Amino acid sequence: MNHTIHDIAVASQIGKYSDAIEVRPHQRWLFTAGTPGLSAAGELPADITGQAEIAWAHIVRLLEKAGMDVNDIVKVTQTLTRSEDIKAYAAVRNRFLGDARPASMLLVIPELVWPEFLVEVEVIAAKADQ
């Protein structure tokens, strides 16, 4: 891990994330766009679990292309369109992140750019230059 977790005991009462992450000097940065649960073939599952699985699989592939993994994520922003999907979404997110605890923000809004999108995930990752 190339960053330091700063814990003030707020995040730990809410979920599996960190209150703040400090990135050390001389890191490579990766910023992803908002990534929906739309497959590369244009398929869009109707449920949150299916869309979340695809979105997080895309995030993992993007990290791999940059020579990174989920432990290099320092910030994740998630946007859902239905609050009733939070629990199912969190189960997928937690499975993909494992023990990683990036800083995190979860928003629930009425609609994303395509009304059929139920989730978008955006991450910022950092890893030491090699």
Summarize, please:
The protein is 26% helix and 30% strand.
Q: What descriptors fit this protein?
A:
alpha+beta, 3 helices, 26% helix, globular
Task: Assign a percent range to the helix content.
Answer: 25-40%
The end-to-end span amounts to 14 Å
Taking pLDDT < 50 over at least 5 consecutive residues as the criterion, the unreliable ranges are none
Q: Could you report the average pLDDT, rounded to the nearest whole number?
A: 89
SS content category: alpha+beta
| Main sheet makeup | 5 strands, mixed
The total of helices stands at 3
Order of helices and strands: EHEEEHEHEE
Q: What spatial form do the alpha-carbon principal axes imply?
A: globular
Secondary structure layout:
Blueprint: E1 3-6, H1 11-14, E2 20-23, E3 27-31, E4 35-36, H2 48-65, E5 73-80, H3 86-97, E6 103-108, E7 119-128
Parallel strand pairs: 5-6
Antiparallel strand pairs: 1-2, 3-7, 4-7, 5-7
Helix pairs in contact: 2-3
